Amino acid sequence: MLTVDAALDRLTHALSAAKAGGATAADAVYIGDASTQVGVRLGVLEDIQRSEGEEVGLRVFVGQRVASVSTSDLSPAGLGLVVERALAMAREASEDQFAGLAPEERLLRAAAPDLDLDDGGDPSSESLKSAALAAEDAARAVEGVTNSEGGGASAGRAVTALATSGGFAQGYRGTSYGVSASVLAGAGEAMQRDYAYHSVRHLADLEDAETTGRRAGERAVRRLNPRKLATQSLTVVFDPRVGSSLLGHLIGAIGGGSITRRTSFLLDALGTQIFAPGIQVTDNPHRIRGLRSRPFDGEGLATTPTPIIRDGVLSQWLLDASSARQLGLAPTGHAVRGTSGAPGAGPANLHLSGGSGTAADLMRGIGRGLYVTELIGMGVNGLTGDYSRGCSGFVIEDGELGEAVAEVTIAGNLKDMFANLAAADDLVFRHATNVPTLRIEGMTLAGA
């Protein structure tokens, strides 16, 4: 895997060759990564996986014609062939009136902010094995746990670099660490499974493996002897680990591609109230040690914390350069890309805030409801906002959690769900997308 400086050197040489070959503009991205993953099961080492890879993606423009090519051959000869191939493809492509690099005046010209994404660590396979064993042992030690799907630990390192013919050339590196456990409780057809995991940028921030494992075991045991519920309308409360999926549906509806294709249920919602007053949704690419923090976007634009929902009002589309041109707007610094194809638009570190009161306060007053801890399937229509997903969790009776529930489906429409959403004050920044406990009135439960 190359250093940032070495990667930028390869990219700038490729861009120079593209310009010399007739490209009117070009950009190139390098992504290199290496990771080690250790898995154990029932106290025995199951596998150790070590993977390393690096790739360059080149995008060239010949007027309004564009082509993208990627390669893992980073030698001068290999990159030279990629340049030739990309130029030949671009000359045969159809014209795209919206094709082009991001505006040069919007590029990040200053030094990239230090987001503390790399702790310089490189833990041994043996230390990862010890963490995986500790997680699984702690999960299996919980009374009622009868089997295991395994424990795991991982460590990784990645380098990202981007250069454009408009004069941008920067990169950054980051580390990542994780620990997990997945176990089963009960016996026979009554067995229930659950899991827990934790991922961080710095090893020092990773919770101890025993805590992760114990959480997995306790979750599995708590799900034993689930009941079914009859079809009814009720209040649904989403645990934070599944409530974050609601923000995923929001982002899918406000990305530039969905808006330009007119395939979003929020197509006409910009500037309107779609959540209750007080609700805020923010994208923060500058969170220190954030899992998706980035100093610049996939087209070289400076990133900045962005309020997407401000006091319940949708205030922002997420736009790359192409979708911005189609809408007659400015790109928002949310371009994301790999080494193949054109950039799209997406968030960095996303969170919902604005709740008041504890999770217990949020459930107080619910005579009968459902507390959801797991969602199954992807029954969401991005065009209409219709929502239907299988789930499991716990009955809420008189404001308290009761028996486990399984094999039910909850349904509604995302417009109504967003409008009727209330949040607790228990937001914790643990993942790339974070929400507190969420409550939604008036959903339909399809049961037995």
UniProtKB/TrEMBL annotation:
GO terms for biological process: proteolysis. Coiled coil: none annotated. Residues 121-224 form the Metalloprotease TldD/E central domain. One of its GO terms (cellular component) is cytosol. Pfam families: PmbA_TldD_1st (PF01523), PmbA_TldD_2nd (PF19290), PmbA_TldD_3rd (PF19289). Residues 232-447 form the Metalloprotease TldD/E C-terminal domain. Residues 26-90 form the Metalloprotease TldD/E N-terminal domain. This is TldD/PmbA family protein. Belongs to the peptidase U62 family. InterPro entries: Metalloprtase-TldD/E_C, Metalloprtase-TldD/E_cen_dom, Metalloprtase-TldD/E_N, PmbA, TldD/PmbA_N, TldD/PmbA_sf. GO terms for molecular function: metallopeptidase activity. PANTHER family: METALLOPROTEASE PMBA.
